[in-house]
Amino acid sequence: MSELSLKKNPYFSGRKGPMVLIVMDGIGIGKQDGSNAVYLAKTPTLDMLFNAKLYTQLQAHGRAVGLPSDDDMGNSEIGHNALGAGRVFDQGAKLVNRSIETGAMYQGECWKKAVATAQAGGTLHFIGLHSDGNVHSNTAQLYAMLREAAKEGVKKCRVHILHDGRDVPEKSALVYIEATENVLSEINTTFGADYKIASGGGRMITTMDRYEADWRIVERGWHAHVLGQARPFASAADAVNAMYAESDKAVDQYLDPFVVVDANGQPVGTIEDGDAVVFFNFRGDRAIEISKAFEAGDDFQKFDRVRVPKVFYCGIMEYDGDLHLPQNFLVNPPEIDRTFCEYLCAEKISMFAISETQKFGHVTYFWNGNRSGYIDPACEKYEEIPSDRIEFDKKPLMKAEEIMQWTDNALKSGKFRFGRLNFANGDMVGHTGNLEATIVAVEKVDACVAQILSIIKELDGIAIVTADHGNADEMWTEKKGVRTPKTSHTLNPVPFCIYDPTYNGEYQMANVENPGLANVAATVLNLLGFEAPDDYRPSLVTFQ
Q1: Helix axes 215-222, 288-295, angle to 10 degrees
Q2: Number of neighbours of residue 166 by Cβ within 10 angstroms
């Protein structure tokens, strides 16, 4: 960090008071119709900001954030990567696709060891989110690995599927199960192999917890995938159909864990000594805890694992670069260096980061280029507000009030020159598909932003208000008169607003070509009184 330095902005030295960057997670700019919870909500603060002079819109999906194409929705992880890095880096899906297309994945030592383990008499297991949403995973990548394993002589493979229903339609699990069963049947027929779906469950209650919000989720997955202990069914499709029949409110992300059993009622695919396990999510946040469960030693105390099979475990990517978790992975993650907060720490700028648990890692780990911990604890303060363990449409206010109050006190303390925060409501409640609850969530965010802006005005500071991607801005789609709830992120742009109460025309919004989230970092540096590094994406403001 010592070699980093910033030049002073010759046109602007910053304001007297602090700057705060507010990320309204999942609040994009959509159609002004009944599908848009942001439009339907009463948001006097956002209305004011969106109609002010210092306002523009940013791309938060596709190539603008390092994804393969502009058909790919953004997400909070890559959004916060871009916000913190100030440049666009190729992201997980794109890196994995390239590695598969070139064959580089299959030439790596990790893949070779997984295959060799299975060839020596073990079973090759794949665990991950079972959809083509391209946010955490993509079934196309799973199918490529299954076919390659079969070509290389792996005779026995088991797939453990986690239903999505968030990044894809909320009741689409059967579509993906049918597609996967077809691939497995093709492999079994062509190679005389034994490839089957073995277990699964809804992503929000099975395996894919994040930020240690609820280890019971990981425990359920462990019991299903490893121990074969969950509701038994003859097939994955039978499991989903039975759970749909039990409640007309059943949606994929909350379906119970299940195991597939044979004619004698025995699980077809428990994980045993001598097996290999590949976790095929490329996004890290919901892959870290299950990886810890497989790799931790006898001191693991999060839940009783009952037995810990001796397996070769790997991820499709490294999920935590500081912890080097997992120890083995198929594709190297993007190497993100020189985030703008590294520069600020080098200049000894005091700053804070705060969110509730659901997005805490985004304003810290992902913001800092996929690195855990402080850049410089002498300059920084990170504050996590514990999230409630509840379906978020049941409490759409979430922890916005607590975040606002802590930020209020931090700004007034005079200790911090810069702060960043994330209000998770628009995204987490938006993912439930509950329009009424999402409207409440957006209104709460608006009220909390208003309070923070009042403090910024009192302190003669600056606030930047933006989002990392859309979600609440498109809650349903309509085709041939039939409305379908939309629980995934959107392809809509996101707002970028500068609130500068003492603004006197010192700068203007710049005419930037294809502005995106990566342009925010240079803008923040400029408004703090610094020039941005030469290779950063251009600032969104220009000076007189």
Answers
A1: 60
A2: 26
- Whether the link from the prior residue into 10 is cis, omega within 30° of 0, is no
pTM: 0.79
> pLDDT tens across 57-85, in order?
999 999 999 988 888 888 898 999 999 99
Kindly state the tokens that stand for 510.
């710049």
- Cα separations in angstroms, 483 against 169, 232, 475: 12, 33, 10
Residue range 481-492, pLDDT digits in tens? 889 888 889 999
Q: Is the confidence at residue 323, as pLDDT, over 80?
A: no
Q: How far apart are the first and last CA of the chain?
A: 32
Sequence-ordered list of residues with C-beta below 8 angstroms from that of 415, at least 6 positions apart, any chain = 350, 381
Inter-residue contact 325 to 295 (CB < 8 Å): yes
291 is catalytic: no
Q: Do 468 and 61 touch, CB atoms closer than 8 A?
A: no
Instruction: Indicate the helix (H) or strand (E) that contains 44.
Output: helix 44-50
Q: What is the average pLDDT value for the chain, to the nearest integer?
A: 96
> CB under 8 Å to 527, separation ≥6 — which residues?
12, 14, 15, 19, 462, 464, 498, 500, 507, 541
Distances (CA, A) of 389 to 186, 357, 372, 441: 41, 10, 24, 17
Q: Strands of 380-385's sheet, edge to edge?
A: 55-58, 494-499, 462-466, 19-24, 418-423, 351-356, 380-385
Distance CA 244, CA 242 (A): 5
- Identify whether the C-beta of residue 540 lies closer than 8 Å to the C-beta of residue 509: yes
In the block, tokens 């208003």 appear at 450
d(C-alpha 223, C-alpha 211), whole Å = 20
* SS3 category, 135: coil
Please state, in angstroms and rounded to a whole number, the distance separating the CA atoms of residues 55 and 470: 17
Catalytic, out of 35, 76, 137, 387: 76
Q: What is the pLDDT of residues 339-366, one digit of tens each?
A: 999 999 999 999 999 999 999 999 999 9
